[in-house]
Amino acid sequence: RTIGDRVGEAKASGNLGNTLKILGQFDEAVVCCQRHLDISQEQGDKVGEARALYNIGNVYHAKGKHLSWNMAQDPGYLPQEVKETLQKASEYYERNLSLVKELGDRAAQGRAYGNLGNTQYLLGNFSEAIAFHKERLAIAKEFGDKAAERRAYSNLGNAHIFLGRFDISAEYYKKTLQLSRQLKDQAVEAQACYSLGNTYTLLQDYERAIEYHLKHLVIAQELGDR
């Protein structure tokens, strides 16, 4: 500020916002991220503007999750404050998405789609969540990003459960399982087995459910996860 470096001030404000978010000081974080946004717009800095929009979305997303943790409920059954916070997150992600499309930044589009999928899932809009996660999946495949692909399969599985499409969920969870083994991520592999166990219970295929729950148990024991 002293030397009148507006771009530097914008970046510093953005960094402060992200740090405050991690500290759980969400309202202060929004103020700093908004400063980043205002200066970026004033400077005609589209990349900075896109980043600021994404960061504000992240702050509201984190705040929404933080508020909903205190009330362990299924997605969609949310108090008004939580709903409004997640809707704000979604709006900022939408604005970010249209800007990164304009900029032709595919990787940033992937991130926006993933986060839009997650916020819509928490809001209980499962069909919308699925549409966003499918977009996320396509971009992950484009980039050969196996970890993001794995997350998308997992999220698609979760959303289909709430629509009562258990057979489709099982297929997505199997893909999650396959990729977690490729990535040698045992904790995620265990989680996928657990999800498959529950899904086959819902499908009333108890033999298969037992099989997956046993696999989950074995990995949990290997990892010493009490």
Provide structural commentary.
The protein is mainly alpha-helical. Helices cover 82% and strands 0% of the residues. It is built from ten helices and no strands. The protein has helices at residues 6-22, 26-42, 46-69, 80-103, 106-122, 126-143, 146-162, 166-182, 186-202, 206-222. Helix 2 packs antiparallel against helix 3 (46-69), helix 7 packs antiparallel against helix 8 and helix 8 runs antiparallel to helix 9 (186-202). The chain is elongated, with a radius of gyration of 20 Å. The N and C termini lie far apart (52 Å).
Q: Distance between the terminal alpha carbons, to the nearest Å?
A: 52 Å
- Secondary-structure element pattern, one letter each: HHHHHHHHHH
Give the amount of beta strand, in percent: under 5%
| Estimated helix fraction | over 70%
Low-pLDDT runs of 5+ residues are none
Mean pLDDT: 96
Query: Major beta sheet, specifics?
Result: none
* SS elements, strand count: 0
Structural category: mainly alpha
Rg, please?
A: 20 Å
Q: What's the number of helices?
A: 10
Tell me the overall shape.
Answer: elongated
Can you describe this structure in just a few lines?
This protein has 226 residues and is mainly alpha-helical. It contains ten helices and no strands. It is found in: Cell membrane; Cytoplasm.
